[in-house]
Design a protein that fits this description.
Elements (H helix, E strand, L loop, with lengths): L1 H22 L13 E12 L2 E9 L9 E7 L5 E8 L10 E9 L2 E11 L5 E10 L6 E7 L5 E13 L2 E10 L4 E8 L6 E8 L4 E9 L3 E8 L15 E5 L11 E2 L7 E7 L5 E6 L17 E2 L6 E6 L2 E6 L7 E8 L3 E5 L3 E17 L3 E6 L2 E7 L6 E7 L7 E6 L2 E6 L4 E6 L8 E15 L4
Parallel strand pairs: 1-19
Antiparallel strand pairs: 1-2, 2-3, 3-4, 5-6, 6-7, 7-8, 9-10, 10-11, 11-12, 13-14, 14-15, 15-16, 17-18, 18-20, 20-21, 22-31, 23-31, 24-25, 24-28, 24-31, 25-26, 26-27, 28-29, 29-30
Bound molecules: beta-D-fructofuranose (FRU).
Length: about 450
């Protein structure tokens, strides 16, 4: 009953504000964004019965954080998404302050979700429960209650279960904080997704809390997570919180000195991966950053905030995870609006577009919308944009993995994703240039193509 009421209230918010949201010139054309309210982490990403399912952390009632819902989307091609409204509402004693992040697996033909029930009591103390949901049809979602309670030795910052199957057994990683305030990932095993055995800490160190862990096997075993509390070191760890990975070994361990950041832009956090039916390991992230200036985003006025990144295929190359835009993204191209080779190019960049620079020799300098610049110089890439709080300019930078040959950039009204050398180095950022501003300046010895991209249907 309560569940139906809450889900209806969420839908009423869409009816009330949906048109206002879509009228925002900053609203994306082909990225996933909320129909109203706030979006954060991707959840429950899975390719199930030939359909891609994605859920996300959703606050329908305002553009701040709080008692999160899970919103649900499906897609046949990872480009066009259908929104199905709320799948989970925070309506039980064990999740009343939020159905927090989690993941999806398939068991006996059914979809099974695990998420964290977040509870904050009147004293502001936190409780956390790992909860289970089943869906026989991907349309109705039945909560099955609490699967795992907080074990000894950890604070209630214990959340974001990611489940997978290997060697006939189910495994779950959970992001956690030890009682002495160290970030870590803990491991559970289950023969049947019913009873869970605590197996201990899989990796720890690096900051005071690790959120949204993920685990998968490529050439090596990859542990992906979002640590909080890392000190800025030169060009590294400049965002409020980080997201990255350690390539190691499930049996012998993961060394924190092997931690690498995934994305070097201003907004990227809490990514999640899944393996699709074609054997691709696909990652999608939240193009946002908690406590990282979101209060200054101009989209609050239109009753929405944040969006996802594009889904990306992960490929291991030595100790690096390369993030390749999916081939499906080419379906978005409608018309070519520029092409050729010119050392100095100046032209119009549509608000929804793809820019491809190939055969690059030497340095490259890009300025888009009189707002953001990318300078690739002597093997280093530097991105600058105005600081969100208006206090001058901010920058992010990265030494490239190999000599610069290609830059591919996706522009979508208020976001920019830059893939250098096939995705060896990636920068994802929100951009808020003057509305209608469409100028692009590209300098360098290269060949250029610009396509206008269509809206997702
Ligand atoms: C990461 C996170 C998760 C939590 C969720 C709540 O952005 O803080 O740890 O489950 O967001 O919305």
């Amino acid at each position: 009953m309560k569940e139906t009421v809450m889900k209806n209230e969420a839908k009423e918010e869409i009816a009330r504000w949906g048109n206002t949201v879509k009228q925002d010139p900053y609203y994306p054309a082909y990225h996933i964004a909320p129909p109203v309210g706030l979006l954060n982490d991707p959840n429950g990403f899975i390719h199930w019965n030939g359909t891609y399912h994605l859920f996300y952390q959703w606050m329908p009632f305002h553009t701040g954080h709080g008692a999160k819902f899970w919103a649900h989307l499906t897609s046949g091609n990872l480009v066009d998404w259908e929104f199905h409204g709320p799948a989970l509402a925070p309506d039980r004693w064990y999740d009343r302050s939020g159905c927090y992040s989690g993941s999806a697996v398939e068991q006996d033909g059914e979809l099974v979700l695990f998420y964290t029930g977040n509870v904050k009591n009147a004293e502001g103390e936190r409780e956390s429960y790992q909860c289970k949901v089943r869906s026989p049809d991907g349309v109705t979602f039945e909560k099955l209650g609490v699967s795992i309670e907080l074990p000894e030795g950890f604070t209630p910052h214990f959340r974001d279960p990611k489940v997978w199957k290997a060697g006939g057994s189910w495994h779950m990683v959970i992001g956690a904080q030890t009682e002495d305030k160290e970030g870590c990932v803990v491991l559970y095993d289950s023969p049947d997704l019913e009873s869970w055995q605590y197996r201990g800490i899989l990796a720890s160190g690096l900051g005071y809390m690790w959120e949204c862990p993920d685990f998968f096997h490529m050439e090596g075993d990859v542990l992906l997570f979002s640590p909080q509390g890392l000190e800025e070191q030169g060009a590294d760890y400049r965002n409020m919180y980080q997201s990255g990975y350690i390539i190691g070994d499930f049996d012998t361990g993961f060394r924190t000195e092997d931690f690498r950041e995934l994305d070097h832009g201003f907004e990227f956090y809490a990514p999640q991966t899944m393996e699709d039916d074609f054997g691709r390991r696909i990652m999608i992230g939240w193009m946002g950053m908690p406590d990282g200036g979101e209060e200054y985003f101009p989209t609050h006025d239109f009753h929405w905030i944040h969006q996802m990144t594009l889904p990306r295929e992960l490929i291991q190359k030595g100790d690096l995870l390369v993030q390749k835009p999916l081939v499906e993204m080419e379906e978005l191209r409608t018309r070519k609006v520029a092409g050729g080779s010119q050392e100095k190019w100046k032209g119009k960049i549509p608000a929804s577009s793809e820019i491809l620079l190939q055969n690059i020799e030497g340095d490259v300098d890009i300025e888009l919308f009189r707002y953001i610049t990318l300078r690739c110089n002597n093997g280093k890439a530097v991105l600058t944009r105005p600081a969100m709080d208006g206090s001058g300019e901010e920058w992010r930078a990265r030494t490239l993995e190999s000599p610069l040959t290609e830059i591919r950039a996706f522009v979508d009204h208020s976001s920019l994703e830059i893939f250098i050398n096939g995705g060896e180095t990636v920068f994802s950022s929100r951009i808020f240039p003057e509305k209608e501003e469409n100028s692009g300046i590209i300098n360098g010895d290269l060949s250029l193509t610009v396509w206008e991209l269509r809206r997702q249907t």
